[in-house]
Amino acid sequence: MQSLMDNISFQIIVANPSHKEYSSQITDEMENSAKARGTGIAKRSPAYVETKMDEGKAVIALTSDGKWAGFCYIEAWGHGKYVANSGLIVSPEYRKYGLARKIKNEVFKLSRKKYPDSKIFGLTTGAAVMKINSELGYIPVSYSDLTDDNEFWKGCQSCVNYEILMSKNRQNCLCTAMLYDPNSKRNHTQELALREDFNKELKLFDRWVRLKKYVMLKLNKSKDTISSIFL
């Protein structure tokens, strides 16, 4: 897929072993971005990202002069019953070009091709990512609708909000869960309704995310305070 904006040309393709030279840049920016947001994603090593490139389970965006611009990879859980498009990241200097949406579209298509019968899910704290997911047919769901694969949830251990997740018995956290079910007849109708809401007022969803963060962090802090009184 070729994209041209403001005289900058991007190539968005399935990553392969020739792209391993970018793995450290990708993982460094994933970590920096998570720190800047104050929330975490599962920390990945360059070797892990390179494995995804070897397997053809990642999408990478490059400029015409060979600079890394963005990345996202596929993970399968529960013996392929569930799939996640993880680690979506765009290099800071290219974040005004709509690359996140384009990369997300490409990795979604790759996921559907490789795992046509799998449910595709995601956890996010960003309203913009929620909007992109909605456009692809995801709908908000409870955490109980996601995979129960322990290996997936172990990936949350590097997140600063891991204690909140575990205090809720993995049933809630600051992230919003969204799911695309290829076998659900409800997807199309619900996705259209949700998309209309997003298009009307994205700020409402951004406020919801910030409110959820405020409430859950406040509750967790209160719990710690109460516990310290009795311990």
Automatic annotation (TrEMBL):
Coiled coil: none
Matches recorded under SUPFAM superfamilies: Acyl-CoA N-acyltransferases (Nat)
Every N-acetyltransferase domain range: 48-114
CDD domains cross-referenced by the UniProt entry: NAT_SF
InterPro entries: Acyl_CoA_acyltransferase, GNAT_dom
Molecular function, one GO term: acyltransferase activity, transferring groups other than amino-acyl groups
Protein name as annotated: N-acetyltransferase domain-containing protein
Organism whose genome encodes this protein: Algoriphagus locisalis
